[in-house]
Amino acid sequence: MESSSMDNHESLRFFGKVSASVSHEIKNVFAVINESAGLLGDLSLMAEKGMPMDPERMKKVATSIQGQVQRGDCIIKNMNKLAHSTDEAALEVDLTQVVELAVALSTRMADMKQMRLSVGECAPAKVVVSPFKLIQLLHGATSLALDKMSSQATLAFSVAEGDDKATIILSVPGQGINLTCDEALEALAADMDATACSNKLDGTLELSFKRTV
Amino acid sequence: MKILLVDDEVELVSAMAERLSLRGMDVDWTDSGVKALHMAQNCGYDLAVLDMKMPKLSGLELRRLMSEKCPDMKFIFLSGHGSEADFKAGSAEAACYLIKPISLEELIAKIEDCDCNG
């Protein structure tokens, strides 16, 4: 397979993986709403037959349904942002906003491994990149980092700015874990005129981009 | 028939348990595979309804561990996924495999079917 075909296949695999995760989450949202609505129906039927109805119980179930609608809306908004990240081949983006989106899209992957993702201190850095490739790079880096971590650990993301570059830093605070890079991640970064490397001094994984502002 | 429901979506599994209880079924629930193993250690359940995808212990792993301990226990899998591989794995390992969101009536029919077959 030629390099560009391989790149396209990897991009499709990434998009498919995120789509599968999102569809699974949406199915769960529908399932909770389905059971909560069914429970409201059951309680109403019982009330019709003369059983006392507890208003607080009804409110709790209604609140659960509203919460799930908000959860579903948030999931769909993030999926929509990923879909629209393919609109432009290159665009000036705020790194913090893209990090937050990538973290939201990767949270289920971390949840399944009983690990957490958190966004820490972020400098207001803007770079010109392919938004889709940047999300793919962050998802790949997250997946690589989670493979090195143990259950209950937290992967932290931060953004730092220098004179001519901005860097996204992935770290696992307090765990003594050295995050590593691999050839696929390096190649993906290079394709964006960026670099991906592990910092052997502090065990972090760094993704660096040329600054535009 | 005593039933154990296991799903990491707390609001889902608690509502499902309440609805089955309202229909006279003897149901316990938990949101964790590890807790489920602990609850089933004395083989007090006839049937477990397991979510396929859960953190730490998947439904398939949980089914294997429970079956080793309690060979007569029956299983029904629930999944949000509709992938071919999951369907084949789930169907091969359990009495049946239902896709979320489920119909409670269909689940009850499957539970009763397990009861008859048991």
Structural summary, described in words:
The complex is a heterodimer of chains A (213) and B (118). Chain A contains five helices and seven strands, in the order H-H-E-H-E-E-H-E-E-H-E-E. With 213 residues, chain A is α+β, with helices and mostly antiparallel strands. Chain A has two domains: 3-84; 91-210, Heat Shock Protein 90. With 118 residues, chain B is an alpha/beta fold. Chain B has one domain (2-117): Response regulator (Rossmann fold), CATH 3.40.50. Chain B has helices at 10-22, 33-39, 59-69, 84-93, 104-117; strands at 2-6, 26-30, 47-51, 74-79, 96-99. Chain B has a five-stranded parallel sheet with strand order 2-1-3-4-5, sandwiched between helices. The mean pLDDT of chain B is 89. Chain A binds chain B through residues 20, 23-25, 27-28, 30-36, 38-39, 42, 46, 61, 64, 67-68, 111-114, 151, and chain B through 9, 11-12, 15-16, 18-19, 22, 53, 55-56, 80-81, 83, 99-102, 104.
Short description:
Chain A is an alpha+beta fold and 213 residues long. Chain A is 57% helix and 20% strand. Chain B is of the alpha/beta class and 118 residues long.
Specify the overall morphology of chain B: globular
- Helical element count of chain B? 5
Measured on Cα atoms, how large is the radius of gyration of chain B?
13 Å
The main pleated sheet of chain A reads as: 5 strands, mixed
Number of domains of chain A: 2
User: How many structural units, i.e. domains of chain B?
Assistant: 1
Terminal-residue CA separation of chain B: 10 Å
**In what range is the share of β-strand residues of chain B?**
15-25%
Query: What sequence of helices (H) and strands (E) makes up the elements of chain B?
Result: EHEHEHEHEH
Distance between the termini of chain A: 38 Å
What is the average per-residue confidence, as pLDDT of chain A, rounded to a whole number? 93
